[in-house]
Amino acid sequence: MKYTIETHELTKKFALQKGFTDFFLHPFRKDEITAVEDVNLKIKKGEIFGILGPNGAGKTTLIKMLCTLILPSEGTAHVNGYDISKDSGKVRESIGFITSDERSFYWRLTGRHNLRFFAALHNYYSDDAEERIDELLSLVGMEDRGDDRFLSYSAGMKQRMAIARGLLNDPAVLFMDEPTRALDPGAAQNVRKFVKEHITGDEGKTVFLSTHHLPEAEELCDRIAIINEGRIVAVGTLEELKSALDKPDPGLGDVFTHYTGKEFEKGAAPKHVYPGRRRMMGGGRPRGMRF
User: Fold this and answer.
1) Residue 212 pLDDT grade (very low, low, confident, very high; cuts 50, 70, 90)
2) Of 288, 282, 278, which is closest to residue 13 (Cα–Cα)?
3) What span, in angstroms and rounded, lies between the C-alpha atoms of 11 and 40?
4) Phi and psi of 76, rounded to 5°?
5) Are 237 and 191 in contact (CB under 8 A)?
6) What is the pTM assigned to this prediction?
7) What's the burial of 115, exposed, middle or buried (CB within 10 Å: 0-12/13-18/19+)?
8) How far is residue 63 from each of residues 35, 95, 223, 254, 269, measured CA to CA in Å?
């Protein structure tokens, strides 16, 4: 297997719901939003691969397809040699997914009890589960707090527990969707150090990282892809991306602006999701999304 992650023309379209009047007047018209379009990527084993883009550019949708949480509309992708559409179960067995939104933890349970629950979902039971949980609690520095309730943890501790959960099945690939978004600078630096030194350094795992923090991408990523309005507009090492700019000593922010035409705004709320990507099948004027 030459590449751990490989995509070919990967595309995701979402259908827009119609209001009663629209359905009555145009019952056969199909309105769609293209969230991700014709993505082609090749990511090697042990690589930290970052993806940057404006809000609503399609980063999370791409990650969800690669994690088999949603199916692609067109194209194909292989993760660890498995087709995300045909071998979704095998894909899920070989990956971990970490996000900054950890509402899926049970806050009234202890950290250890949470990990036991998620271990059972991976078919880890009894002694095997306890051994793996003890190993991971020690690995993320939570061995002394593992028996405390999750609700008592700081933001940094919760994120460390999220990393432990993502590593329960010893995945070959770890998908991280803005993992340091809610953390203070010190906690965020600890997470970056752990990813760089242990997850890829010691374990040799592949990391697919979505981030809104430019210094984080510069510090961690071996290569970076920039996605804009659903399409990958640039991919390469930091130096390769900078070399395309006719500017002395450009930064990653300059690269981002060059390829997207937008100023990078860390943590900015999206004003328009998927701007300009509505596909009107059968004509008609653009309308707002209805949910």
Assistant:
1) confident
2) 278
3) 10
4) -140, 165
5) no
6) 0.82
7) buried
8) 12, 12, 16, 25, 19
